[in-house]
């Protein structure tokens, strides 16, 4: 007997509008932040719109996938969780077959100059696994042995693979999101405390054991001690933010993007926003992400089942944690680490995967109580 077709309501218009605004701002700021570098570089054919064209193309692909995902009942993904996990693990292993980039192996390089970063997929696959499993566990979530330890092992496995790629930042995002999801799902506080202690201890250990991570930590505490080395990027970021003042220097008028901040269209694009659009521009970005988090949580609370609630919380948390870490790094509030600003930083696979996940979140918003 065929199951009755799920009735879909309207998408959360505020959430949808917020996502589209962030993507639009991202495309504009990618062009502004990258135009000088691209125009003066032979590698980019002296084309100031080199990165803009690629970001627009990826944006169109991402929005297309988002629209498709909006129309697909989010319960469908539950059936294919195991397949998604296997594919993601394979992709995370395939990266080691490709050349390293500054000592890290995070990308699968494809013909045409494009690449895929499997760790971006892994974040949402872990969330999907958590959502499906937590719904099945029910009251067992209160047990450390059955409700916490299995998730620590699975999330830790994915985080471990990503750590082998020299990507502590995304590994940290996965573990932090796991803690948030378990806490919001009703795990006991003492179990969450144990989990946080284990994750924190692991983070400290992996930082201390890697000399370059230790240098980043020390430079964060006093970047001016090594202004031309480990502290250079943070100092240039602070100079950009300080130069912008309240109103900013004007769109396209950044000076720090002129070979001072390395690749300003990537992880440090928020510094360029601060320089060109000032405190007002920065607050606008923070406001948009705050609205996104609010609507994500609201839709999670109103979801019609546990799977939808946990899935929505996880997707929202991935974006929220990356946003918080990126802004904290750029403003000197935590050690420098490579986490892009969702929807805004340059990056094809990241944008497409994030927008696809937003389509799932918007589909959940169509099926609320």
From TrEMBL:
Membrane topology: Multi-pass membrane protein
Classification via Pfam families: FTSW_RODA_SPOVE (PF01098)
Pathway named in the protein's UniProt entry: Cell wall biogenesis; peptidoglycan biosynthesis
Spans through the membrane: 12-36, 56-74, 81-98, 110-131, 143-162, 168-185, 192-209, 268-294, 306-331, 343-364
GO terms under cellular component: cell division site; plasma membrane
Subcellular location: Cell membrane
Its biological purpose: Peptidoglycan polymerase that is essential for cell division.
Protein family: Belongs to the SEDS family. FtsW subfamily.
Entry protein name: Probable peptidoglycan glycosyltransferase FtsW
The organism of origin for this protein: Clostridium homopropionicum DSM 5847
Name of the coding gene: ftsW_1
């Amino acid at each position: 007997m065929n199951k009755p077709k799920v009735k879909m309501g309207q998408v959360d218009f505020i959430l949808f509008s917020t996502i589209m605004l962030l993507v639009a701002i991202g495309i504009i700021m990618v062009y502004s932040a990258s135009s000088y570098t691209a125009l003066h570089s032979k590698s980019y054919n002296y084309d100031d719109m080199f990165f803009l064209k690629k970001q627009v193309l990826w944006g169109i692909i991402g929005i297309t996938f988002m629209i498709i995902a909006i129309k697909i009942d989010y319960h469908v993904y539950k059936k294919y969780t195991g397949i998604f996990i296997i594919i993601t693990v394979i992709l995370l292993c395939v990266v080691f077959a490709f050349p390293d980039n500054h000592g890290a192996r995070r990308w699968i390089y494809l013909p045409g100059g494009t690449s895929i970063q499997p760790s971006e997929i892994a974040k949402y696959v872990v969330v999907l696994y958590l959502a499906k499993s937590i719904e099945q566990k029910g009251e067992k979530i209160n047990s450390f042995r059955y409700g916490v330890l299995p998730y620590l092992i699975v999330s830790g496995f994915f985080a471990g693979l990503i750590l082998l790629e020299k990507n502590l930042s995304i590994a940290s995002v996965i573990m932090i999101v796991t803690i948030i999801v378990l806490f919001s799902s009703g795990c006991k506080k003492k179990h969450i405390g144990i989990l946080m202690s284990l994750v924190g201890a692991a983070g400290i250990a992996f930082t201390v054991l890697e000399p370059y991570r230790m240098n980043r930590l020390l430079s964060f505490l006093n970047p001016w001690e090594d202004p031309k080395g480990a502290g250079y990027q943070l100092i240039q970021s602070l100079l950009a933010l300080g130069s912008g003042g309240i109103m900013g220097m004007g769109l396209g008028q950044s000076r720090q993007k002129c070979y001072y901040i390395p690749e300003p269209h990537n992880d440090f694009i928020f510094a360029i926003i601060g320089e060109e659009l000032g405190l007002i521009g920065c607050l606008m970005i923070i406001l948009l992400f705050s609205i996104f988090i609010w609507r994500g949580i609201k839709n999670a609370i109103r979801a019609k089942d546990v799977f939808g609630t946990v899935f929505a919380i996880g997707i929202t948390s991935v974006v929220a944690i990356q946003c918080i870490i990126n802004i904290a790094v750029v403003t000197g509030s935590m050690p420098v680490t490579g986490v892009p600003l969702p929807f805004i930083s340059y990056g094809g696979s990241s944008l497409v995967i994030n927008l696809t996940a937003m389509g799932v979140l918007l589909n959940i918003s169509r099926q609320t109580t």
